[in-house]
Amino acid sequence: MRRPTWSPELEAAVLELRKLTPGWGKDKLVVLLRHEGWQCSTSMVGRILRKLKEKGQMVEAPIRDPWQRPRPFKRPYGIRKPKQYLARAPGDIIQVDTADIRPLPGWSFKHFTACDVITRWHVLEARSRATAPAAAGFLDAILERTPFPIRAIQVDGGSEFMAQFETACQERGIQLFVLPPRSPKLNGHVERAQRTHREEFYRFAELPHSLQEINKMLRTWEGVHNCYRPHQALGYKTPKAFYQQLLTLEGS
Asked: Is the pLDDT of residue 59 over 80?
């Protein structure tokens, strides 16, 4: 029976090199070993590698394709909006999105906007970060400050709209629609709303260094947007006036 012709020290050197370079085979390893002064052949290094595998000392890493897209996170509740589901009344679809606001170098926060696609009613809030607990808290603000019941919320695939946010929607009986990747146009109402708040509020506001104070200013601006600012898409009515008109038509 053929016995190994290499020393334990050479075997240890091969093992150490292979740990440092797991993707390299015997042809490259033998060159590096010779540079370190070892006398060995390519076939000998190959036999050492095979012996290390048999002894269980060298565990091969699983082969992964770095160019393959990872499978998307499977949501327990959120789904893609069915084509037959259409917003016909206030609250049928509320689009929610976040924006990064950087008022000063080294300081930023997240701006949350909720926009009803029928009335263009907005709810606004600033949070230090876009996390799932922050989004779940914003959901409570939406429910509190929207004058009509909410049936469905539509979000992009951001991680802030997973976990606690998804659970909060499910517990409140609100359908959660999640957009497919790279499709912001499907959330066009809230995307346009984010631009409005950047251009008409953040561009001119002297922001304090406190999120609590910023949220007070946002509540005032939210009231201006919903109850005072004419909206072109609503025939230059305010969201409040447009909603009241819908109520009048339903009652007649």
From this structure: no
